[in-house]
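Q: How do we represent a protein-ligand complex in a form that can be generated token by token?
A: Start from the inputs.
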Amino acid sequence: MTDQATSGASSNKDRVVIFDTTLRDGEQSPGATMTFEEKLEVADLLDAMGVDVIEAGFPIASEGDFEAVSAIAKRVKRASVAGLARAAFKDIDRCAEAVRHAVHPRIHTFISTSPLHMKYKLQKEPSEVLEMVTAQVTRARNLVADVEWSAEDGTRTDMDFLCRTVEAAIRAGATTINIPDTVGYTVPEEYERIFRTVRERVPNSDKAIFSVHCHNDLGLAVANTLAGLAGGARQIECTVNGIGERAGNAALEEVVMALRTRADILPYVNNIDSTMLHRASKLVSAVTSFPVQYNKAIVGRNAFAHERGIHQDGMLKNAQTYEIMTPESVGVSKTSLVMGKHSGRAAFRSKLKELGYELGENALQDAFNRFKDLADRKKIVYDDDIEALVDDEIGHHGERIKVEALTVIAGTMGPQTATLTLSIDGIQATKQTTGNGPVDAIFNAIKAIVPHTATLELYHVEAVTEGTDAQAEVSVRLHEDGKSVTAKGADPDTLVASARAYIAALNKLMVKRMKTKPEAMTAGAAS
Ligand code: KIV
Ligand code: ZN
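Then emit the structure tokens for the protein with 3-methyl-2-oxobutanoic acid bound:
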């Protein structure tokens, strides 16, 4: 089957710039923190997928953010690399420093323009804000050629004032003007009108590209994004899996597939290789440990599943009856290689390639060992099993604390008891503890070996596939000192997966603490 509506000469279509902010707005969502290495991995994938601008972080926010933006700027081959900066000279200078090695560096600076934000957040008069726009964009433009300016809370901004600030920003040298729907408040008709009006009223509007940036508080982020294009915007800001502040941002995969599937009425082209969307979703879910909801458009587990008999019958006769795009077009391949306990390393390597993974030799060997172990225990090893296993391997790579052994006594006779051995920097420690249920007993054992004050905010178990022998994937979110981290663990044994997830979250907290208080986490490895 070919995809519907991918025809149409691209020559009469406008090009749309895809600006990905998974590493900045996405990473700002509570618990979605990524490590330095994970950020690099995501940046590499975004670049390979054809994203035009990668917003790599907020360099002034922390040393870690600066280092990540700077490293991404140095390694990204094709895309522009942007850093975010508030309207302050020190922010802008730090941002310029971080992106300066990029092939195409961009500074993205912003200030609030709505009456509410100016009065309560900035405590500034509109005239002061207007002056700051000129000063900040001028400063940024003296440092790089590509400057984006955003009118934060743009959709709740007075139209006359919005036009004055946009005109000032362009006059000062801004090359892209973003009008974000910061609080996810607008609706499609209104958002389209905002762009149309600003472009008509601002005399120098033809000197800049206009950009949409939508939050999903009312579930309208993608619809508003498309409406912004109708109003004349030609840059889309979005994130993989739609992660981001509160309800998230417009999902990159949804926007891209809407543009592709309805190319008959949406006259825009972009550079994204849509067959990499599934892989990007998996990677972002693995590194943030944010599960993708089953019925999520494009990348959810059910996105291409047809359960009801009448649908299946229609699908068998002609897939287009119920399928508006093919699974292959988003990188979901029909299984070609069936894996089992007799599959060797070469077959495993080619399966990983088919699933879109490229692992180094050591990671490949570790994943292969776990696959063999799984294949001995499980009748059928599905692609989902392999993806969970490899994501788990990636998520736990290089951890200082590791689960070495676990025995649990559970059941009606209580008390539930866990005997756990961890290694911390290679040194082993064992504790036996009881708890109110086996999971509580395990988490108590972890606390006994690695004393910490983090609180458990979320504990979530999911079966990776069907069947009672399915692997369990556990997500754990820990909170400490105002910071949350989420991590996953996968194993055919739910209790082992729980221990792995908790330990992974603890390792992430440890990385954070090392940056702020290095003395705080020297292995409390008692006994
Ligand atoms: O939502 C928002 O307003 C932002 C800006 C910083 C662009 O993320
Ligand atoms: Zn935002």
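The mean pLDDT is 90. Residues 494-516 form the longest helix (23 residues).
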